[in-house]
Amino acid sequence: MSQQFPDDFLWGGAVAANQVEGAYLTDGKGLSTSDIQPHGIFGGVVERHPGDSGIKDVAIDFYHRFPEDIKLFAEMGFRCLRTSIAWTRIFPQGDESEPNEAGLAFYDRLFDEMANYGITPLITLSHYEMPYGLVKNYGGWGNRQTIAFFERYARTVFQRYQHKVKYWLTFNEINMSLHAPLTGVGLPEGSSKQAVYQAIHHQLVASAKAVKACHEIIPDAKIGNMLLGGLLYPLSSKPQDVMETLQQNREWLFFGDVQVRGHYPAYMQRFFADRGIAIDITAEDRAALQSTVDFISFSYYMTGCVTTDEALNQKARGNILDMVPNPHLESSDWGWQIDPQGIRILMNELYDRYQKPLFIVENGLGAVDKPEADGSINDDYRITYLNDHLVQVREAIADGVEVLGYTSWGPIDLVSASKAEFSKRYGFIYVDRDDQGNGSLERRRKKSFFWYREVIASNGASLKG
Ligand code: BG6
């Protein structure tokens, strides 16, 4: 009999401000990098004009409907909800000296509502967005000054919510900047590696400064980093493929290495030298980086393969993250390869490497849901996906990995990040809205809603397998 989930395991779900809140200019909010990408992070930039519209401008109107949604999460038994604060609600342009009180008050209302149901907030400081003002006027994270703007924002929200929020994350999927520089570090797509890594360096310093500030202001809080858990396997047992896989895994593990160990890993010296990249790292930066995270959080959706066979690599270009498909795995409707055992492998790898608690803060299946004639939604495919992954999480716990919790991605349907689609649904709760923005926004419980309620109520004992 495998070891079960710990009694205080934080079961729940995860959303992000820009994918649920809508109200994109309400109560003084400024434009963010998400707002100027209305077709998603891989959908291009659109200058916004008064009166125009985009699907995220309303999203699922969580800004106004959150009491109803929190109630539904509570009905499922959530112990935890991960969401983010929209930086632009607090500092609309990014460089103001005083925060926007209306924005701060919104999150007070949200956290109070969660507290009413005993739901623990897990809050990301920056989830795929930053003030567009900082991008336009300062060059985003390419500019050192952005570190101070971010620190002011982080300190402001730590002060304000110190009694309400005890779990924090710095930057969502911080390694994603390598694939989406505008979303990650506020640099134009196509920026040079030199520019992107310098911006990443500034962001890593800012992340460490936020860790320090959090520890000072909320001594009983825990703050983690957040990685896109992009585990790669060698496509073959050829030593060249194995070596290449090691190198490519390091490209994302690098972020964790800095955030957990407090300094750049030795292998990056060669990585930078081989590519002619020179990073400006000051003595003050090195000191700042020593403030390290308390836990490691990550998203997990899929794995991919690495090969040194150029023809196969060529074929894979344009796939998500350019990964070569694994011939042994099935794919989702969106071509994301489904690999439940991969989460156990990843958890063991991360725990072996860092010996810090893990928090699974995203995992889920994006799929098309077709309501039956009576309006019910029988999403057995989602139940199977989540069940199979959670069984492997349980295995990892039995392997000895320390895990704080699991928040499945998009417990309520939301706007997808990559292409801002609505038809790519992750939720236990269906939201009546389509890709064109039509629909009543009515919420409905899917079959998976009742399944997840049972998983939480039984602390995982109801899982099959
Ligand atoms: C993660 C992001 O990359 O994956 C989320 O942190 C995102 O914001 C999720 O929504 C799923 O991606 P997508 O494109 O299906 O929404």
TrEMBL record:
One GO BP annotation of this record: carbohydrate catabolic process
EC number(s) stated in the UniProt entry for this protein: 3.2.1.86
Molecular function GO labels: 6-phospho-beta-glucosidase activity
Record's keyword terms, sorted: Glycosidase, Hydrolase
Active site: E362
Tree of life domain: Bacteria
GO cellular component, one term: cytosol
Gene3D superfamilies named in the record: Glycosidases
Primary enzyme class: hydrolase
Family to which this protein belongs: Belongs to the glycosyl hydrolase 1 family.
NCBIfam families from the UniProt entry: PRK09852.1 (NF007356)
Name of the protein described by the UniProt record: 6-phospho-beta-glucosidase
Provenance organism: Rouxiella aceris
Record gene name: ascB
